[in-house]
Amino acid sequence: MTLRTRVTLAAGFAVLLAVVTVSVGVYLLVRDNLRDQIDESLSRRHGDSAEQRDFSHGTSTAPDHLPLIEQVFMQIVDRDGDVVSRFDDRPLPITGDVLAVARGEREETFFDAEVDGTSVRVYVTSSEQGTALQVGRSLNEVEQALSRLVWTLIAVSVAAVGLAAAIGRMVAATAAAPVHRVAEAAETVARTGELSHHIAVPGGDDLGRLAASFNTMLDALSESLSRQRQLVADASHELRTPLATVRTNVEVLARADELVPDDRALLIRETVAQVEELTGLVGDLVELARGDGQEEPFAVVDLEEIARRAVDAAERNHPSIVFRVDSAPTLVRGAPGRIARAVSNLIGNAAK
C-alpha cells in the first residue's frame, strides 16, 4: 500500500469516525427532543381536568387540539383494571403503572406501547373517582422524521467521507512528492551507479531535511568511491617497483650457483630488505582500506636524511643507475612516513 493510499484511507476513516459520532449524537438528541415535545403536549393538554370530566361523562368527541383522530388513543381505567370509558375501539394496554395511578399510588407515568401495529406514546394521569386517564399519541410522525433524519445523516456522512478522501488524496500527493523524488533518485543511483544525481531540497521541513540528508549521503558515497579508486591507484603504484625488484632478485637467486658468495649474500640482504619494505607497505594499505589507520602525527624531520635513505633504496632497485646526492641538513615539519614516501616516489619515477 502506497503512502498516498494510506493517507487517503486514514483521512477518510478519521472523518467517518467523526461524522458517525456526530450523527449518532444528533439522532439521539433529536429523538429525545421529539419525544419530550410529545410528552409535554400529552401532559399539558390531555391532563386538563375539564377535558377529563367531559371524557369521563361519556363525551365522544375528540378535543379541538387533536385534529388527527387516528393518531389519538384515550380511555379511562378504574383501580381494578376495567375500562370505564374508551374514545374508540382501540384499547390501550393496562399495566401495573396504570393501576398504580388509578389507585392513587402515583400521580402520572409515561410508557411506550403498540396498538394495532402502531407505536404509541401513552400518558397516564389520575382522574376522578379512583380512575386513571390514559392518553396515547401515535409515534408515526416521530418515526418518519427520524427515518428522514437517518437518511439525511447517511447522505451527509457519505459526502463528507468522499470529500475527505479526495482532499486527503490531494494532500497526500503533495506531501509525498518529495518522497517520490528521493525514491526515484535512489533508483537512478542504484541503476546507473551515478552518485552525482542530487535532488532539489524543497524547504526546511522534515521532507526537506530528508532530501538534504539524501544528498549528503550521495556526497559521502561519492567521496568514499573516489578514495577507494585512489587507494587502488596508489597501491598499484606503490607495489609495482618493490614487487618487480623482489621478482628480479628471486630470479637471480635461482641461479645462485653462478654467483660469487659476496654477491649472493648481498642479493639476499637486498631481497630481505625489499620484502620487509613490501610488508610494511602492504600493512599500510590494509589499514587504509579498512579505514582504521590513524593519521600520522606531524614532527620535525631531516629532509636530507630521508633523501639519502630513499637513494639507498633506489640504488638497490635500480643497480644500473648512478645516483648522486648534493644536499645540506634541512629540517621540515610534516608526517615522516608520508614525506619519505613522496621522496621515494620522486626518485623512483626519475630512475624509471
Strand residue percentage: 5-15%
Instruction: Tell me which CATH architecture of the largest domain applies here.
Output: 2-Layer Sandwich
The CATH class of the largest domain, by name, is Alpha Beta
Q: What is the strand tally?
A: 7
CATH topology of the largest domain: Beta-Lactamase
The biggest sheet, with number of strands, parallel, antiparallel or mixed sense and barrel status, is: 5 strands, antiparallel
- Give the strand order, joined by hyphens, for the main sheet: 2-1-5-4-3
User: How many domain units?
Assistant: 3
Distance between the termini: 64 Å
Radius of gyration: 52 Å
Q: What is the general shape?
A: rod-shaped
What is the string of SSEs from the N terminus onward? HHEEHEEEHHHEHEH
Estimated helix fraction = 55-70%
The DSSP helix count reads 8
**Would you tell me the overall average pLDDT?**
78
- Structural class by helix and strand composition: alpha+beta
Low-confidence stretches: 49-53, 58-70
What does this structure look like?
- This protein has 352 residues and is of the alpha+beta class.
- It folds into three domains: 3-147, Beta-Lactamase (2-Layer Sandwich); 198-294, Helix Hairpins; 295-352, no CATH class.
- It has eight helices and seven strands.
- The strands form two sheets. It has a five-stranded antiparallel β-sheet.
Q: What's the structural blueprint in terms of helices and strands?
A:
Blueprint: H1 3-45, H2 49-56, E1 72-78, E2 83-86, H3 96-102, E3 108-115, E4 118-126, E5 131-138, H4 140-192, H5 206-253, H6 261-290, E6 299-302, H7 303-317, E7 331-334, H8 336-351
Antiparallel strand pairs: 1-2, 1-5, 3-4, 4-5, 6-7
Helix pairs in contact: 1-4, 4-5, 5-6, 7-8
